[in-house]
């Protein structure tokens, strides 16, 4: 799991709603029912989100408020985007 230190090696502004903030919270973790050192609770994601699996299909509708959580085949978060 990559080491992420807010404000040092991330662009986290502390707003809590930006992509960088979510990237800091989610990178290298798996999505699960509850949070711990290696996982993040799905219930704590914003209401307007989608999980994008590696090799999966995406709709082309653009929603600037939607959080896209990209995961690899084992469910580890690899990227977080908006749209």
Main sheet overview: 3 strands, mixed
CATH topology: Trypsin Inhibitor V, Chain A
Q: Portion of residues in helices?
A: under 10%
Kindly report the name of the CATH homologous superfamily. Trypsin Inhibitor V, subunit A
How many domains make up the 3D coordinates?
1
CATH architecture: 2-Layer Sandwich
Give the rounded overall mean pLDDT: 84
Total strand segments: 5
**Number of helical segments with 4 or more residues:** 1
SSE series: HEEEEE
Fill in the keyword field for this structure.
83 residues; mainly beta; Trypsin Inhibitor V, Chain A; two-stranded parallel sheet
Topology:
Layout: H1 19-26, E1 30-32, E2 39-41, E3 49-53, E4 67-71, E5 77-82
Parallel strand pairs: 1-2, 3-4
Antiparallel strand pairs: 4-5
Provide an overview of this structure.
Pfam families: Inhibitor_I78. Residues 1-21 are annotated as: Disordered. This is Proteinase inhibitor I78. It comes from Capronia coronata CBS 617.96. InterPro entries: Prot_inh_I78 (IPR021719). It is built from 1 helix and 5 strands. It has a single domain (19-82), classed as Trypsin Inhibitor V, subunit A (Trypsin Inhibitor V, Chain A, 2-Layer Sandwich). The protein is mainly beta. The chain has one helix spanning 19-26; strands spanning 30-32, 39-41, 49-53, 67-71, 77-82. It has a 3-stranded mixed beta sheet with strand order 3-4-5, covered by helices on one side. A two-stranded parallel sheet has the order 1-2. Helices cover 10% and strands 27% of the residues. The protein is globular.
């Amino acid at each position: 799991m990559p080491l992420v230190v807010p404000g040092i090696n991330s662009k986290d502004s502390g707003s809590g709603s930006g992509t960088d903030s979510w990237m800091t919270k989610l990178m290298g973790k798996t999505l699960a029912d509850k949070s711990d050192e290696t996982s993040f609770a799905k219930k704590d994601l914003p209401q307007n989100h989608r999980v994008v699996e590696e090799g999966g299909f995406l709709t082309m509708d653009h929603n600037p408020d939607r959080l896209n959580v990209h995961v690899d085949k084992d469910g580890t978060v690899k990227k977080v985007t908006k749209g």
